[in-house]
Specification:
By secondary structure, this protein is an alpha/beta fold. The chain is built from eleven helices and 20 strands. It is elongated. The structure holds pyridoxal-5'-phosphate.
Length: 371
Amino acid sequence: MVVAVTRPTRLNISQAAVTHNVQQVRESAQASFVFLAVKANAYGFGLVPMSQAALAGGVDGLAVAVLDEGLALRQAGITAPILVLGITLPQYAKLLADNQVMATVGSLAWLETAAEYLSPDGPRLQVNLAVDTGMGRIGFRERATLETAITYLKAHDDIFDYQSIMTHFSEADSTEEDYFHQQLHCWHELTDGLPMPPLVHLANSGAAMYHADEMPTEVIRAGTVVYGVEPSLGELRDDDYLEPVMTLETELVFVKRCHKGEGVSYGHTYYTEEGEWIGTVPVGYGDGLPRKMQGFEVIVNGEHRPIVGKLAMDQMMISLPGELPIGTTVTIIGRQGDVENRLEDVADYVGLAPWEISTGLQERIYRQITD
Ligand SMILES: Cc1ncc(COP(=O)(O)O)c(C=O)c1O
């Protein structure tokens, strides 16, 4: 993996926006402990810089999808609680415990196998029990098996530390609430009266914003809102209470004046007008920008200007309002004056979800925290 630090293309993470968004979701849920989901390279924003910005912005713990992401955070010197949301192979129980990374567990069999790799002489393995209330992904589905697992954990508390229990909603950010209520009902049926650990967390962003009065939200696992995206994408509420976190910027590295009818990029899907100024920027589909972004309007000199011709792997061309100096900032996602492109605008343009765009942004793009 090569990070391109020598080209003027960068993804900025706004510290102020992260701090603001953490406050918004914490207040809405009245949460005392906020996990930020930083899986998949922190939704593409950059695992380490985004985690650092989030911790500086007030989150208490980080949630990753796989152990390797947790280890990368530990290697970066992060000491905050880390929870792996997916199932880790039980053979890695000792590696989890040695690094104080919490494992999500959905069966007694997992605990029994993990026990073979743990010893009372070593650190205890922190356990988060997953309860499947209707997401249909991972977790205990029956009260009896959940109860057996809790009993097992308590009987083996020299190697296991029963720290946490959770469920995950399939839909908590829409006007369609029936299924959400079914899942909540199922949670109560499966867990009410069972011994609860210190961390009990049901809510993701949508539940934290729209259902906080219906369930325990002292602990939440947020992603979407902290990244500055409204969970319902505007269906339940305008997004003006959030601040966009990501700016994706580049600069003109080549500028030319063209004659009428000159073809631009592979396959000449665009022909210039007489006297049209065309600028080239060093970013392309090899960085994760979808090729369908041809025609999308980036921001140059405070105005929207279209990407012309096919995006190439490493470069793309923009129709300029006139001659502009090399080094002029080109904002793909972000704001110049009153003109703004949000991540959601790119997603809309190409017909994908915001996270499909951001998680596709490649490691080659240099990421940094700005004020
Ligand atoms: C188990 C789990 N919890 C929390 C989150 C965060 O969800 P959101 O981004 O909707 O806040 C996710 C994200 O997909 C998840 O898989």
